[in-house]
Design goal:
Radius of gyration: 30 Å
Mean pLDDT: 85
Largest sheet: 8 strands, mixed
Number of helices: 26
Bound molecules: phosphoenolpyruvate, magnesium ion
Strand content: 15-25%
Length: 761
């Protein structure tokens, strides 16, 4: 019994007929609830199912039964499941269909007596997706155990697409798209997210909503739709090519590689193949794009690998562009339609979409779902746009034209900020501008301490887009070039020539200034998604960095070859990370020398001079310093890792980040030990962990005897300002008096010292 006659909806047959009838229902001026009630009856009849139910996502990470044909109607608006709970909650959480011939034997099955569903054995449920979110679940059930065919699953998914519009725009009061917003209330909001690029921007919201609403789902003319699809695909490819060629970012830099990858997707045959297949199944070209895109988004939601999520964003970006081509709405947001100070807010965004915005008006960017190394973040950095990410659901809380503050430094956003917040930030922007001007004025001042000791401040870098920082900061050189970043943003291992070009560009930008290349430091949190790695219980302590390179030397050899070739006629400096025993450095050095010999034998040009160094990051080295330093040209302390391993405290763990102070006296003693060994062995020692860029910590470092440190570019000015005011000999004496103290930190003593000597830290 499906009761369709009671609801006044005559039975229909076949998916096409179903879709047509659904459209008729949706066009009626009935309330959203009435439409849903009619829809479930229609679907149940069409799919010859005893039950059809629609569950809608409601606040509190739950789904609620909104309409049913077949289950007890008294359960409507009563039955709720948490995400991940029961079969329906599982579909909502995973955003994937579930087809079962015996639902009750499934481990996730959760019995809800009020629904009366115990008599139904087979179960088919699909997510209702809208703009990349699961906004509901559509379910059919049958009494007898049966296996749903692929065609039936597909038909139900297409049906879910049609009803997505009703759910999203239906104003159910509790539906997520309505409930999650506080439009109209004009509340000030403050959120903390992920800092993607530096900088502060005050401006007005522009919602990045290039989404085209697909209202015609099916077509009787497959050839016509296939023709439209092909024309739109050709236009899309051409427009991407033109955009890349004309973009002022087109020349060099990894943003160029990023955009090249994007171009590759536009020409991807498997994507166009899927689209074509969807059109051949009877969908309009637009519905086919949305269908494939929905499937992709569902896969993206399940994807934990950040790199692959990023690839999906690129494809999502392309799909939205394709829809705009189909709809004939291809023009980029016109400059005059943007506010003077535009802050663009996007759920997610591909790199090319950001380039569509007029750069002279674009100040800030907020992206809900992204990561530090995302392609759009890299492009934002290259454009100098203040950007923050990681705010789930934020786009729903913002209206176009809302006043917004983006603080890229802290990762904060303020929406509709109060006047005192605006004024505080305006002050901050002015202060930063003044400070930057002061630091800029220090660029040419020689790096000599108050009593005349020379010091060297370098920057840490890893991307070509960072390189202008070398000039801007006035740093002496690049003390740490993290070569793995090129590998992390690529879609496969960079080839020899790509690596060589990358290193050459770095050396060219540095000119006479020294650059220390750190060999590939991958593993742990630095993931190369195209590199298969064994599952590890303790990846930070695992098969990573130099360990991996020595076991599988092909990669390291290629990298050394590229570095040797790129540095022809210059001074090449290479250092090796995560050495835990001096013999490992010896092996790396031998490998490097083999590559030098090989290049020479083949008549290739080689560097004029080579210096090989070691990173001191593993505490075991503290007890073999003389032996180690005997073999190296220089050493650099990787304090981020050294402190994590000394205190057995995960450097990325939010609960532990405040637990052990960098200014812990035992850590200070360890650093002092390294400096003394360097002096004893005549080996230059530097330090390139994050602490070098914090003025108070930097003060401690000179007190320990360091004269050469490397830091984030923005820290060079502030640290230099402190060093120019500091008497190095005096602070050395002071630090010596603190080293044997017990207790967790010498921070208060150093703060007091700075205050006493008029040093602003
Ligand atoms: C360090 O460990 O201090 C360091 C500079 O290297 P990374 O942060 O890249 O591990
Ligand atoms: Mg390290």
């Amino acid at each position: 019994m499906n009761g369709n006659t009671q609801s006044g909806v005559p039975p229909a047959a076949g998916p096409r007929m179903l879709l047509r009838r659904l459209r008729e229902i949706m066009a009626r001026p009935d309330s959203a609830q009435t439409r849903l009630d009619q829809i479930v009856v229609l679907i149940a009849a069409n799919m010859v199912a005893e039950v059809c139910s629609v569950y809608v996502a409601v606040p509190g990470d739950q789904v609620e039964l909104f309409a049913t044909e077949g289950l007890k109607r008294s359960a409507v608006h009563q039955t709720r499941l948490k995400l991940g709970e029961g079969l329906v909650g599982t579909i909502a959480a995973d955003a994937t269909p579930l087809a079962l011939s015996d639902a009750q034997s499934h481990p996730a099955f959760a019995f809800r007596p009020e629904t009366g569903e115990e008599t139904y054995h087979s179960f088919l449920g699909v997510p209702v997706l809208h703009s990349g979110r699961t906004i509901g679940v559509l379910v059919v059930q049958n009494v007898s155990p049966r296996t749903y065919t692929e065609d039936e699953i597909e038909a139900l998914q297409i049906t879910a697409m049609v009803i997505a519009e009703t759910l999203a725009t239906g104003n159910f009061g509790t539906a997520p798209t309505a409930a999650a917003t506080d439009h109209g209330q004009k509340l000030s909001l403050h959120r903390l997210g992920l800092s993607l690029t530096d900088g502060i921007a005050l401006g007005y919201a522009v919602l990045h909503e290039p989404r085209v609403v697909v209202d015609v789902i099916i077509s009787d003319d497959v050839e016509y739709e296939a023709g439209r699809l092909n024309t739109a695909l050709a236009e899309l490819r051409l427009s991407v090519d033109v955009m890349l060629a004309s973009s002022d970012l087109a020349l060099g830099g990894e943003h160029h590689d990023v955009l090249e990858a994007y171009r590759m997707f536009a020409h991807d045959q498997s994507w166009s193949g899927k689209l074509e297949e969807a059109v051949r199944s009877g969908l309009t070209a637009e519905a086919a794009v949305e269908r494939v895109q929905n499937e992709m988004r569902a896969r993206m939601l399940r994807q934990t690998n950040p790199y692959l999520r990023e690839r999906f964003h690129d494809l999502d970006d392309l799909a939205r562009r394709l829809l705009r081509h189909l709809a004939g709405k291809t023009t980029a947001p016109a400059a005059e339609d943007l506010p003077e100070d535009a802050i663009v807010i996007a759920r997610n965004m591909g790199p090319a979409e950001l380039l569509d915005y007029d750069r002279s008006r674009l100040r800030g960017l907020i992206i809900e779902d992204t990561s530090l190394t995302s392609h759009v973040a890299i492009v934002a950095r290259a454009l100098g746009v203040a950007a923050v990410g990681g705010f789930e659901g934020l786009a729903d809380r913002i209206e176009p034209g809302d006043a917004i503050i983006v603080d890229g430094e802290s990762g904060e956003v303020y929406i509709r900020p109060d006047l005192d917040v605006v004024s505080a930030f305006s002050d901050k922007v002015r202060f930063r501008a003044r400070q930057q001007a002061q630091y800029a004025a220090l660029r040419k001042v020689s790096s000599v301490s108050r009593e005349g000791t020379p010091f060297t401040l370098d920057i840490n870098s890893g991307l070509l887009v960072d390189l202008p920082n070398l000039d801007d900061s006035g740093a002496a050189g690049i003390g740490l070039f993290r070569t793995e970043l090129q590998f992390m943003i690529a879609s496969r291992f960079p080839r020899f020539e790509e690596q060589r070009r990358h290193y050459r560009a770095v050396l060219d930008a540095a000119g006479d200034r020294p650059v220390v290349f750190r060999s590939l430091d991958i593993g742990s949190d630095k993931v190369l998604p195209y590199l298969r790695r064994p599952q590890e219980d303790n990846p930070a302590l695992g098969w990573r960095a130099l360990r991996m390179a020595l076991d599988r030397p092909g990669l390291l050899k290629l990298q050394m070859r590229a570095l040797i070739s790129a540095s022809a006629g210059r001074h090449l400096r290479v250092m090796f990370p995560l050495v835990a025993d001096a013999y490992e450095f010896g092996e790396a050095k031998a490998l490097f020398e083999q590559e030098m010999a090989r290049t020479k034998t083949r008549g290739g040009p080689v560097p004029d001079k080579v210096s090989l160094g070691v990173m001191i990051e593993v505490p075991s080295l503290l007890w073999q310093l003389d032996h180690l330093l005997n073999d190296v040209d220089f050493a650099s302390v990787g304090s981020n890792d050294l402190i994590q391993f000394m205190f057995a405290s995960d450097r990325g763990h939010p609960r532990l980040s405040q637990r052990y102070d960098t200014l812990n006296p035992s850590f200070m003693r360890a650093l002092r030990k390294v400096v003394e060994a360097g002096e004893r062995m005549g080996v230059p020692i530097s330090l390139c962990g994050e602490m070098a860029g914090r003025p108070l910590e930097a003060l401690a470092l000179v007190g320990l005897g360091f004269r050469h440190i490397s830091m984030a570019p923005a820290s060079v000015g502030p640290v230099k300002a402190v060093f120019l005011e500091t008497d190095f000999q005096d602070i050395e004496l002071f630090m010596a008096s603190l080293l044997d103290r017990p207790g967790p930190t010498i921070r208060p003593q150093l703060v007091e010292y700075a205050a006493r000597h008029g040093i602003e830290v």
